[in-house]
Automatic annotation (TrEMBL):
<keyword id="KW-1133">Transmembrane helix</keyword>
<keyword id="KW-0677">Repeat</keyword>
<keyword id="KW-0732">Signal</keyword>
<feature type="signal peptide">
    <location>
        <begin position="1"/>
        <end position="24"/>
    </location>
</feature>
<dbReference type="InterPro" id="IPR001330">
    <property type="entry name" value="Prenyltrans"/>
</dbReference>
<feature type="domain" description="Prenyltransferase alpha-alpha toroid">
    <location>
        <begin position="52"/>
        <end position="162"/>
    </location>
</feature>
<dbReference type="Pfam" id="PF00432">
    <property type="entry name" value="Prenyltrans"/>
</dbReference>
<dbReference type="InterPro" id="IPR008930">
    <property type="entry name" value="Terpenoid_cyclase/PrenylTrfase"/>
</dbReference>
<keyword id="KW-0812">Transmembrane</keyword>
<feature type="transmembrane region" description="Helical">
    <location>
        <begin position="377"/>
        <end position="396"/>
    </location>
</feature>
<keyword id="KW-0472">Membrane</keyword>
<protein>
    <recommendedName>
        <fullName>Prenyltransferase alpha-alpha toroid domain-containing protein</fullName>
    </recommendedName>
</protein>
<dbReference type="GO" id="GO:0003824">
    <property type="term" value="F:catalytic activity"/>
</dbReference>
Length: 404
């Protein structure tokens, strides 16, 4: 469930990962300007719609009414057929065959706009597009026609549920999204022990992936990014013949993985030393809370309170949103998250919300209402490596290495 996915990004990761992770990234050009309605100051090419959707959804979750121009910016990113691309610099230009539509961005937009209300036409078209690109196995890949993966299938499930659909009844050739997830669930025992894989490898083998497992637990429970604490049903790891059992198995895997490393997950990008994965830890907290596994979720959210400030500050609006979702799921106050006000910090990355003043927000005149790509993939991935973002809300939905 995470930020931008691109073959170019992955290629860049492999090269940059071989260098020192702490190498300084190029400074942005002072002449660079992005839309004033957009959250965040980094290049939106791979994550504009995603991070905007998360920012708006997180603000709605804590009772903040976002700036109307930010909501309208997101609405205008939609293509005529209902899908969303990762980012369209000029939404007045019609989408065509070269426009790379994105199931993850579309699903995030559906969740945000549904929560905000008043955008039924937009969300209805988006859901229709998602249904039109469902794979024969019942799942979704990041791009239309791509092989189904756990992360993409799960975030689409969250969008369907948010829009009032019954995900188990959204079928292609008799297969539902749950059927796709069950095929990506590992058996009990061994290294996988009930986890979800991202995708099968070239030989059809499944490898446990903590990022995919956090997403898969939410998908199996028909949950989106914003959850209330669920009711735990004690269940040992058993063969997953139902989505509920797959969720229980995945939650057990996450609990063990979190406990192993002092209540957080670890990641290792190519060529880099293992480091804390703040994004996936936040995802895991939400997934565990959704199933009612509150003991480990609360331990991990306490770890995030103590350790995530620098990561969030460098990573921007999507990271603040993730932490707000984790706080909400565990009943933690997002306005006093380890002494930090996540709501204020998120607000400072975009236009002032409708119910707040200008304090703590960036000036609109620092941006223009049209933007273009500038920083490029090298800057973006370099910052990710420096910030220690890891896998969470980053390189999911494309051909990535199977990893814990």
């Amino acid at each position: 469930m995470n930020v931008r996915r691109s073959a170019a990004v992955l290629a860049a990761t492999a090269v940059i990962g071989a260098a020192t992770p702490a190498a300084a990234a190029p400074s942005p050009s002072p002449s660079q300007a992005f839309p004033s309605a957009l959250y965040g100051d980094s290049d939106p090419k791979y994550d504009g719609v995603w991070r905007q959707s998360l920012a708006l959804l997180a603000q709605d979750t804590v009772g903040v009414k976002p700036a109307e121009k930010s909501v309208q910016w997101l609405v205008r990113q939609q293509c005529a057929d209902g899908g969303f691309a990762s980012y369209r610099p000029d939404p007045t230009t019609a989408c065509d065959a070269k426009t790379m539509l994105d199931t993850n961005a579309t699903s995030a937009a559906v969740q945000a706009l549904t929560a905000l209300g008043g955008h039924d036409g937009t969300t209805r078209k988006a859901v229709g597009w998602l249904k039109s690109v469902q794979n024969e196995d019942g799942g979704w890949g990041y791009s239309p026609g791509g092989a189904s993966d756990t992360n993409s299938t799960s975030i689409v499930i969250g969008a369907l549920a948010a829009a009032g659909e019954k995900p188990d009844q959204v079928e292609k050739d008799g297969k539902s999204p749950h059927d796709a997830l069950l095929k990506l669930a590992l058996p009990c025992g061994g290294d996988g022990d009930g986890a979800f894989a991202f995708q099968p490898d070239k030989k059809g083998r499944l490898a446990a992936n903590a990022d995919a497992t956090a997403a898969g637990v939410l998908g199996a429970l028909d949950k989106g990014m914003v959850v209330e604490p669920g009711k735990k049903s004690d269940a040992a790891c058993e063969k997953a013949t139902t989505p509920q059992q797959a969720a229980a198995n995945g939650a057990g895997y996450l609990t063990a993985a979190l406990a192993k490393d002092d209540n957080h997950l670890m990641s290792a990008l190519a060529g880099a030393e293992p480091q804390p994965d703040f994004g996936n830890t936040a995802d895991a907290v939400v997934a565990l809370a959704a199933r009612g596994d509150t003991a480990q979720a609360e331990k991990s959210v306490r770890w995030l309170e103590k350790n995530s400030a620098s990561w969030a500050a460098q990573s921007g609006p999507a990271a603040y949103a993730q932490l707000i979702f984790a706080a909400h799921a565990t009943g933690t106050n997002p306005r006093d998250f380890g002494g930090a006000d996540l709501v204020k910090q998120l607000g400072a990355t975009g236009p002032a919300p409708q119910a707040a003043g200008k304090n703590g927000t960036k000036a609109a005149d620092e941006k223009e209402d049209s933007g273009s790509d500038f920083f490029g993939v090298w800057w973006y991935v370099g910052v990710c490596l420096v910030a220690g973002i890891g896998i969470g809300f980053l390189f999911t939905g494309r051909k990535k290495q199977q990893q814990l």
